[in-house]
Amino acid sequence: MVNTVIVGTQWGDEGKGKIVDLLSEHVDYVVRFQGGNNAGHTMVVNNKKIISHLIPSGIVQGKKCFIGNGVVVDPFVLLEEIDYLTSLHIDVSPAMLKISNRAHIIMPYHKLIDAARETKKGDQKIGTTGRGIGPCYEDKATRRGIRLCDILDFDFFKEKVITILEEKNFYLEHYFKTSPIAPEVVINQFQQIKDRLLPYIADVSVILFEGINQNKTILFEGAQGTHLDIEHGTYPFVTSSSVVAGNAANGSGVGPGNLNEIIGIVKAYTTRVGSGPFPTELFDEIGDKLQSTGSEFGATTGRKRRCGWLDMVVLKNAVRLNSLTGFAITKLDVLDDLDEIKICTGYEHNGEKIFDFPPEIKTLQECTPVYETHPGWKQDISGITDFNNLPDKAKSYLARIEELSKVKIKIVSVGPEREATIIKENIFN
Ligand code: GDP
Ligand code: IMO
Ligand code: MG
Question: Which residues line ligand 1 (CB under 6 A)?
Answer without folding.
Answer: 8, 12-18, 40-42, 44, 295, 299, 330-331, 333-334, 413-416
